């Protein structure tokens, strides 16, 4: 594991975006696994800034998002499709046909999960960006007795819904389920970039990276990934 703790959020954003930029320089047709939530926003801002300054191009790159809520209309302000449009895709030059997000409104969610897995079989993710849930979830792979390898529908834990309620008018409006990439798909990425910010995640990120490898903390599985890069702000990194 390659662990970096940054003094400022801007330093962290620069370093994380820098990893994407160097990857694009080596291989313009890179495949990126992308994440939502508050954690990646500063990194997406930096990439958009570098794109408008002519420093990076995604014209030949591909992306696969980790997850999507079930049942939120595509235009809903909190759908991950809309989030990605606003925070990144509308600000860079990645062709629309190269961007992929599971469809949480598909008529058959099982078929949608199969379709997403089949699609991803044709690509090898170069960098998978991950945030971390307060309960150790990655994507929406929630703590459980066992974890699923491929894309699947998951019922969201109460604490995850509560954590995400800050983005919705009320807790009742937070969807109860989501479609998420599975653990095996995430682990297949050549490099995984785990980014964690904030004092409230100091304990969980420490447990995930130094504690037992267990499905009770899905992020702990990242310990066995051969190319794991971890970027923390000083608050999240205070136990290291
Ligand atoms: C969300 C997403 C995850 C994200 C995590 C943390 O529910 N499904 O992909 O990493 O929770 O979110 P945040 O970065 O807002 O703390």
TrEMBL record:
E.C. no: 3.5.99.6
Glucosamine/galactosamine-6-phosphate isomerase domain sequence ranges: 23-223
Presence of keyword Cytoplasm: no
Gene3D superfamilies documented for this protein: 3.40.50.1360
Catalytic reaction annotation: alpha-D-glucosamine 6-phosphate + H2O = beta-D-fructose 6-phosphate + NH4(+)
Record-annotated active site: 67, 135, 137, 142
Gene Ontology MF terms in the entry: glucosamine-6-phosphate deaminase activity; identical protein binding
InterPro entries: Glc/Gal-6P_isomerase, Glucosamine6P_isomerase, NagB/RpiA_transferase-like
UniProt entry keywords in alphabetical sequence: Carbohydrate metabolism, Hydrolase
Superkingdom in the source lineage: Bacteria
Protein's organism: Paenibacillus aurantius
Family: Belongs to the glucosamine/galactosamine-6-phosphate isomerase family. NagB subfamily.
Cellular-component GO terms for this entry: cytoplasm
Pathway(s): Amino-sugar metabolism; N-acetylneuraminate degradation; D-fructose 6-phosphate from N-acetylneuraminate: step 5/5
Pfam families found in the cross-reference section: Glucosamine_iso
Gene it is expressed from: nagB
Protein name per Swiss-Prot or TrEMBL: Glucosamine-6-phosphate deaminase
Keyword rRNA-binding among UniProt keywords: no
GO terms under biological process: carbohydrate metabolic process; glucosamine catabolic process; N-acetylglucosamine catabolic process; N-acetylneuraminate catabolic process
Function: Catalyzes the reversible isomerization-deamination of glucosamine 6-phosphate (GlcN6P) to form fructose 6-phosphate (Fru6P) and ammonium ion.
């Amino acid at each position: 594991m390659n662990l970096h703790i940054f003094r400022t959020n801007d330093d962290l954003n620069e370093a994380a975006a820098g990893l994407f930029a160097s990857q694009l320089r080596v291989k313009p047709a890179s495949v990126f696994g992308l994440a939502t939530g508050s954690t990646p926003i500063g990194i997406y801002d930096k990439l958009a800034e570098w794109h408008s300054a002519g420093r990076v191009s995604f014209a030949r790159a591909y992306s696969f998002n980790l997850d999507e809520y079930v049942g939120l209309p595509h235009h809903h302000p909190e759908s991950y499709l809309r989030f990605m449009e606003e925070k990144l895709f509308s600000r860079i030059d990645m062709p629309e046909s190269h961007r992929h997000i599971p469809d949480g409104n598909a008529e058959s969610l099982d078929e949608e999960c199969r379709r997403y897995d089949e699609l991803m079989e044709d690509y090898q993710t170069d960098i998978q960006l991950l945030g971390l849930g307060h309960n150790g979830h990655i994507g929406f792979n929630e703590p459980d007795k066992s974890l699923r390898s491929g894309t699947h529908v998951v019922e969201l834990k109460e604490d995850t819904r509560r954590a995400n309620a800050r983005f919705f008018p009320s807790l009742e409006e937070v969807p109860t389920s989501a479609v998420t990439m599975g653990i095996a798909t995430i682990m297949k990425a050549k490099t995984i970039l785990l980014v964690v910010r904030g004092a409230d995640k100091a304990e969980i990120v420490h447990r995930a990276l130094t504690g037992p490898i267990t499905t009770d903390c899905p992020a702990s599985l990242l310990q066995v990934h051969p190319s794991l890069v971890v970027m923390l702000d000083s608050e999240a990194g205070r136990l290291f």
